[in-house]
Structure formats: structure tokens, C-alpha cells
Design goal:
Blueprint lengths: L3 E7 L13 H13 L8 E6 L3 H13 L6 E12 L5 E3 L9 H4 L1 E2 H9 L5 E14 L2 E3 L7 H5 L4 E5 L5 H4 L8 H11 L10 E3 H15 L6 E3 L8 E4 L4 H12 L7 H14 L3 H35 L5 H14 L4 H51 L5 H14 L3 H36 L23 H8 L3 H15 L10 H5 L3 H14 L6 H10 L4 H8 L2 E3 L2 H17 L4 H4 L3 E3 L37 H5 L5
Parallel strand pairs: 1-2, 1-3, 3-6, 6-8
Antiparallel strand pairs: 3-4, 4-5, 6-7, 8-10, 9-11, 12-13
Length: 640
């Protein structure tokens, strides 16, 4: 009479350097329960061996294979650590195996293969629910090492089931009594769910296929393997239970999807509970057992999704360092394959990409609006500048260039803004010149007929507005230069009807009567022996190419701390001008514009030093740096 005999080995404790396995002894107990059950495994002999030494394990293995007859079914089950040496040779650990002496204290796969080969039984099943670590050089490799099980344990008539070549974290289930592979081997037999062809029998290939599918539903990276000596070889391992609960479980297996049962499936399942005469409580227990691995897998997928969402929320483009952490979390903690997480990443990345593009578009629109606002601001300031002075001198041009750069405007856009304004201003300027020339011709023709108030000294104090220049003449004649300068401003304000304003603006300078302007200038030139006067300043102005800064240097409205500094500044200005650079940085180095009280009211002052009252700025700019507003317009008059 053929017998069915089994040896179930579980090792949960080890020597130094090898971590314990809490599930190994539970695995043995569960396998013993289903194999000994007359309605299921119906094994004649099932011997458990818990935490043996290496010699105890060898004796038990030798006994198992030695006692079997030709027609017997022999089953060897091992739950524990597997170790490979540096040559890839496999050892099964014992309770005395340590990290440093495993080859001496573990059971060599060659020993098992030898005993199996000497066995008469033609039907042999080896089940290894183990993880494999590699002893590489001085340390252990804890990742998968790709053990060649078929070469080391395979033979004719022998079927080998192995849980995986995965790491220890894939082997044990945290917080659960059984290792993952054994859990579903037992479940497949005990519930009859492994009987996929419904013939009432569970063959070894059916059992492995069921367990593998369940394992990979939870941990896709685990790859349970079955090794057959020849194609189609199959062994009847157990009988499937014939009971209502098993039938109900098969229906649940059939309808379960994505870790859930749909409302539609319950339209069938709930009536079936009554047909099979099982309680709602028992039915829900069966449903939870079937759905549990799928739910665990989807929980892992959800965990990865949450982590990935958090990463891309912080930074849309995932850098290499973060990607490495995600990969470790995916593989080592959640045990997910690349194909499992690819749809998750695609969904999230696509949504984030769309959001990112929208943000970029909004940002570009904001930048465009800000740029257009800057262009309008520049247009306003440029219009003010050409209204005050036209043509623009180099000093004003440099200031506008710096203003443009501070706004971040490119030359092309600025040119597009300036062109129409300059065109209109040029037309106005030409018209004004024509009108001015016509006016001067008329003045020349009528100058002899102008009514001039008589003076005590002479009749050279002509005025179109009837202004009395006697006091100005007398002050100049007496050499009272400061009082004469102040009187010059007073009579010019009176002539321009701006006595209340206390200062002249570009418009009043442009419209100042020619006869009065020449009278004031001739008085200054006459009584200073040609050193002072507007016409003297105009000659200097034209000699420096209408550069207000250089005019200030020559007539003494700017000063330097030392002569050396002055020479350095002049040298740098010449270089910058040749190279087309801006001058502001060097023209302010070591130099400053004088205030009115700093002037030299003396005949020995620099040529063109006086009159100076029109060059003085107003308010906080009460120095001669502000003279660029009025002086260029005055010195550009053709009637000087």
C-alpha cells in the first residue's frame, strides 16, 4: 500500500549574526494541520522538526528518504534562512548556524540532493519557503542572489516549490503568523481554492499556481517558482474539501477585483449564502480572507501614490537623489515592480505637468504685463525728457540708458517707443527754429525803433519789455560780481514775468526776448573784459560738444579733491567715450558739483564762471548739477 510521508522543518532561532524568524514554527504547524487532515492531505506520517542542530536535521532528512518505498510520496518542507557561499552553493540554516561558520553548521544542499537521489520513491516534493542571502567576501549580500535551485536540488521524479529568491523582508509578514508563501499553500488546500479545475483534487502545480498568484497580488516582486523534472509531470498532493464554504469561496475569488466586491457581485453572493446555508458572518469572513491580499497590495500602491504626490508637490522635476529614495521605498518597503507604479506616476505627473504649464503661462502673462507697464513708464519719462531738452545731450542720454536697464527693457523695444516721439519732436524743433529765425530777422529790422527808456550813462541798455538795466550795469562796472549775478536773475525773472516763481524754466528761456538777452550778455562781457557772459559760456559749451559735465569742469562749477583725481577722471572719460561706455561711474569719482555759496565771485575766477545763477538747481538739487535743465537751452540760443 503506497504511503504519504512528510518531514516539516522550521528554524526560527539562529546563532550570532543571523536574525530570527518568528513565522517558521507557525509555518510547520499550519502545514502539519492540512497534511494530516484525512479529508485534505491525508498523509500517513507527518513529522515536525523544530529548531534542530545540523546533525539533527541531516539524520531526519536521511531517515525521510531512506524509509520511502518506490510508490510512496515523499514531501520535505523547510521554512527558514537559506545561505549561499561565494560560489553560489546553497545551505539550509540550523539553530546553531552563525554568520561566520555557516558552511560548517548548516546543511549543504548537496547532502539533500544525495539523499533524495538514493531514495526509491519516484514521487518527491521539496518545498522551500526561504529567503536566500549571499555570503560575499567578508559581508553578507542581503538582496536576491539568484540561487540555482534546479541544479542543486533537482532530479527525476522530483518537484521543487520555492517561495522566492527575495530578501528577508519579503519572506516574513510583519505582524502576521505565517510567511507569505506558506500562508497561501495552506489556504489553497484548506479552503479548496487551489482546485482550479474543480475535479476535487489538488495537484502540486495547481497549488503552486494558486499560491504564486496570491503572493504576487501582495508582493509583486516575489517570484515563487516550481521546478519539474519533465514537462507535464504532476503529483496529486491533497483533496479539495467539498463543502458549502469552499464553493462560496470560489465564487468570491471569481468576482473579486481590485481588492473589492462590486455591488453587482453582491446581487449574486447574498442569495448564494442562503443556497449554501452559511451565515452572513461566515460569508464576510471568507470574503475578507479572499480580498485581504488584494487590499494589502492596493494599500502599498496607495502608499506609493501618497509619497509620489508629496514629492512632485515639493518639486515638479524629480531629481536623481529623490528618485533613488523613491526607488528604494518602492522595492524594499512596498515590494512593488516598476510596471506597478508606472500608471500611478503617469497619472500624477500628467496632472502636475498640466498644472505646471498653467502656472508657467500665468507667470509669462504676468511678466508680459509687467514688461509692458515698464515700457509705458519709460515712454512717459522719455517724453518728459525730450520736452525739457531737445536734442538730448550725452548726459541725459546716459541717464535714460541707465533707467532703461533698471527696468530690464531691451534696445529694440525702447527704439520702437522713442522713434515716433523723436519724429514729432524733430518736426516741432525744426518749426521752432524756423520761427526763431524769422523772429530774429524781424527783431533786427525793428531794433532801431524799439522804445527804450533813457538812462543816465548811455543808451546801450535795450529792452523789449522796458526793463531798466542801470543797476546791473553799475554793479558790473563796480566789480560787485555776486550782487551783479543776483541782479541778473532778478531782471531776467522780471522780463519773463516769473518774479513769483523765483526761477526760470526751459520754456521761459526759449521765449526770452533777444534784445534783453543781448543787453545782459554784452554788459557782462564788457565789464569783465571778455571773461564772463552768456556768449563766453556758449563758446565753451560748443567747444566741449555740448557736454554739460565738461562745461562744469571748465567754468569751475565742479571741483576735484586733487589735480591727480581730475586727470584720472578726464583720462577715464576719454577712454569710456571711445569705447561707447557710460560715464556716470567715473564722472562722479573724486568730483562734486558746487553749491551757489561755493562760487568764486572774483575777476580771477575761471573763464565763463559767471553769470551762474541760472545754472543753480532748486530744492534738494541746489547745486550746479541741476543746471542741465536750463543752461543747455540758453546756450543753444542763436542770438548769443
Amino acid at each position: 500500500m503506497p504511503k504519504k510521508i512528510a518531514l516539516l522543518i522550521g528554524v526560527s532561532k539562529y546563532g550570532e549574526g543571523i536574525p530570527p524568524l518568528s513565522s517558521a514554527l507557525n509555518d510547520v504547524e499550519a502545514m502539519q494541520r492540512v497534511l494530516q487532515n484525512p479529508s485534505l492531505g491525508d498523509f500517513d506520517q507527518v513529522e515536525p522538526l523544530l529548531n534542530p542542530t545540523d546533525s539533527e536535521m541531516r539524520r531526519a532528512i536521511q531517515k525521510l528518504f531512506k524509509q520511502a518505498a518506490k510508490d510512496d510520496l515523499v514531501l520535505l518542507f523547510f521554512s527558514g534562512h537559506g545561505i549561499t557561499n561565494d560560489d553560489g552553493h546553497l545551505y539550509l540554516t540550523t539553530r546553531i548556524t552563525t554568520k561566520d561558520d555557516f558552511e560548517a553548521t548548516a546543511v549543504d544542499a548537496n547532502f539533500i540532493q544525495g539523499q533524495s537521489n538514493n531514495c526509491y520513491a519516484k514521487r518527491q516534493v521539496l518545498i522551500l519557503d526561504a529567503c536566500y542571502s549571499g555570503a560575499i567576501a567578508q559581508g553578507w549580500k542581503t538582496k536576491s542572489v539568484g540561487v540555482d535551485i534546479k541544479k542543486q536540488l533537482g532530479a527525476e521524479g522530483r518537484v521543487i516549490l520555492t517561495s522566492s529568491s527575495a530578501t528577508q523582508t519579503s519572506f516574513e509578514q510583519e505582524g502576521l503568523p505565517l510567511s507569505l508563501y506558506t500562508q497561501y499553500l495552506v489556504e489553497g488546500i484548506e479552503t479548496g481554492a487551489a482546485d482550479t479545475d474543480n475535479d476535487g483534487n489538488i495537484h502540486v502545480q495547481e497549488l503552486h499556481a494558486y499560491a504564486k498568484a496570491k503572493v504576487q497580488a501582495v508582493k509583486p516582486k516575489m517570484t515563487p517558482v516550481i521546478i519539474l523534472d519533465r514537462e507535464g509531470f504532476n503529483i496529486l498532493l491533497a483533496h479539495a474539501p467539498k463543502n458549502p464554504e469552499a464553493e462560496y469561496r470560489k465564487l468570491v475569488e471569481q468576482y473579486a477585483q481590485n481588492g473589492e466586491l462590486s455591488k453587482l457581485s453582491y446581487l449574486i453572493l447574498k442569495p448564494k449564502r442562503k443556497t449554501f446555508k452559511i451565515t452572513d458572518e461566515k460569508a464576510e469572513q471568507i470574503e475578507n480572507e479572499v480580498l485581504e491580499p488584494l487590499r494589502r497590495r492596493f494599500a502599498n500602491l496607495e502608499s506609493y501614490k501618497e509619497a509620489f504626490v508629496e514629492v512632485v508637490e515639493q518639486k515638479y522635476s524629480v531629481d536623481e537623489h529623490t528618485r533613488k529614495i523613491l526607488k528604494d521605498y518602492q522595492q524594499d518597503i512596498l515590494d512593488l515592480r516598476d510596471e506597478d507604479i508606472a500608471p500611478i506616476e503617469l497619472e500624477i505627473a500628467s496632472a502636475k505637468k498640466a498644472e505646471y504649464r498653467k502656472q508657467v503661462q500665468i507667470q509669462k502673462q504676468q511678466e508680459k504685463e509687467e514688461y509692458e507697464n515698464s515700457l509705458r513708464y519709460y515712454e512717459q519719462e522719455f517724453a518728459k525728457a525730450v520736452k525739457v531738452q531737445y536734442p538730448l545731450d550725452e548726459y541725459v542720454r546716459n541717464g535714460l540708458k541707465q533707467f532703461q536697464q533698471s527696468l530690464g527693457l531691451n534696445d529694440e523695444d525702447v527704439g520702437r517707443i522713442e522713434a515716433p516721439l523723436l519724429t514729432r519732436k524733430q518736426a516741432e524743433y525744426q518749426k521752432q527754429e524756423q520761427e526763431e529765425a524769422k523772429k530774429q530777422r524781424q527783431e533786427q529790422q525793428s531794433i532801431q525803433t524799439i522804445s527804450v527808456k533813457p538812462t543816465q550813462q548811455n543808451n546801450d541798455l535795450s529792452s523789449e519789455k522796458g526793463i531798466d538795466y542801470t543797476r546791473l550795469r553799475d554793479l558790473l562796472k563796480a566789480g560787485e560780481w555776486e550782487e551783479a549775478d543776483k541782479e541778473t536773475l532778478a531782471v531776467m525773472l522780471k522780463t519773463a514775468d516769473r518774479e513769483q516763481k523765483l526761477w526760470l524754466d526751459p520754456e521761459s528761456i526759449k521765449n526770452f526776448p533777444s534784445a534783453d538777452l543781448r543787453t545782459i550778455d554784452q554788459l557782462w562781457v564788457k565789464y569783465s573784459d571778455g571773461r564772463f557772459g552768456f556768449s563766453v559760456q556758449k563758446r565753451i559749451w560748443e567747444s566741449v560738444a555740448q557736454d554739460y559735465t565738461k562745461l562744469g569742469d571748465i567754468v569751475g562749477w565742479r571741483t576735484y579733491e586733487t589735480v591727480i583725481q581730475k586727470n584720472i577722471v578726464e583720462y577715464l572719460e576719454n577712454i569710456n567715450k571711445k569705447l561707447g561706455f557710460q560715464e556716470e561711474a567715473v564722472t562722479t569719482m573724486g568730483a562734486k558739483w558746487l553749491h551757489y555759496t561755493d562760487l568764486t565771485f572774483d575777476i580771477h575766477a575761471p573763464e565763463g564762471h559767471l553769470p551762474a545763477t541760472l545754472a543753480r538747481g532748486e530744492g534738494e538739487h541746489n547745486d550746479f548739477g541741476g543746471g542741465w535743465v536750463c543752461v543747455p537751452g540758453l546756450l543753444s540760443r542763436r542770438d548769443l
